[in-house]
Amino acid sequence: MNYIADTLGIKVVAEQWDGATHLPFYLADGYTFQTVKLGDIQCLFIKPNGELNALPAVKKHLAKIAEQVNSPLVLELDALQARQRKALIAAHTPFVVNGNQLYLPFIGAVLQERYISHQEKRETLSPAAQLILFRYLYQGEREMYANGLAEMFGVSAMQITRAVKQLAALELMTTRKDGVQIVIAGTESGSALFDKAKQSLLNPVRKRFYTEKEILPPNLPFAGVSALAEYTPLNPPSVTTYAFYGKANELAGTYTLVDTDSQAEIEVWRYSPTLLPAKDNLPDPLSLWTTLTDDDARVEIAKDGLLAEVWGDK
């Protein structure tokens, strides 16, 4: 939201929208919603939990959501191809691409464009590619063998092959052969490689909701600011957050926080939060960092401290 505030010079206030419980499951599960106040105008930001659907499907989804909302709807995206941008503008569909461009005709905002010379490099890493990248960063060695990663991460060999190709295409890693084995190496080292990859990092969290503590599965790892407080001196939040890897409908939940004592926040992850080196019952620091989108200054300071710990021995 800082991008919008800086670009338009207005105050931007965002909070979670509790109306998703009244939507069909395919919408509630497919998007993340925030009520956003742009100056004096309130609107609903809608962020796809994954790739943006084809425009005809998006238009149908927005029309269904509009039945529940009287304020403008805005698509919030991490990346947007030129043809998608043109189609959305032609359909007069408001959108914001974080840190890159925006189209908000209902407030007369001018489209801002800051294209990267190779737009494809803004594509988001697949879960397997992100796991490989983070594993490489944690080991602190110049090279790493790709063989064995499929078993380590619980994915297919084909997924690892595609992930390695994606990392190479994004110029984050190079590959070579050692006999029949594939050897990968970062194009930068440590924090420099992480900084280079930032624009393509995947947020492992695809959905958040609240549930009763008494029905939580045992031994769920902490997540969000709760996990950050375990890694840093930051005070823990009033509502504990846990990471869950599985189908969202396996847990009963609501988008509304009613009781801070009896409820917990659940983050549904795209990959298991415990696959990479970490403290007990916590996600690994780099994966955790990518989930923390809070604009709170205390959280930002703690995030910097989290990365400093990671690079301390690298």
Brief characterization of the structure:
This protein has 314 residues and is an alpha/beta fold. 33% of the residues lie in helices and 21% in strands.
- Mean pLDDT over the residues: 88
How are helices and strands ordered from N to C? HEHEEHEHEEHEHHEEHEHEEHH
Strand content: 15-25%
Oligomer: single chain
What is the strand arrangement across the widest sheet? 1-2-3-4-5-6
Number of alpha- plus pi-helical segments: 11
Largest sheet: 6 strands, mixed
Rg estimate, integer Å: 20 Å
Overview of this protein structure:
- The chain has 314 residues and is an alpha/beta fold.
- Helices cover 33% and strands 21% of the residues.
- It contains eleven helices and twelve strands.
- The strands form three sheets. The protein has a six-stranded mixed beta sheet with strand order 1-2-3-4-5-6.
- β2 (31-38) and β3 form a beta hairpin.
- The chain is globular.
Give the SSE map:
Blueprint: H1 2-8, E1 12-16, H2 25-30, E2 31-38, E3 41-48, H3 55-66, E4 73-77, H4 82-90, E5 95-97, E6 101-103, H5 127-139, E7 143-145, H6 149-153, H7 157-169, E8 173-178, E9 181-186, H8 190-197, E10 205-212, H9 224-231, E11 241-244, E12 263-269, H10 285-291, H11 297-311
Parallel strand pairs: 3-4, 4-5, 11-12
Antiparallel strand pairs: 1-2, 2-3, 5-6, 7-9, 8-9, 10-12
Helix pairs in contact: 5-7, 9-10, 9-11
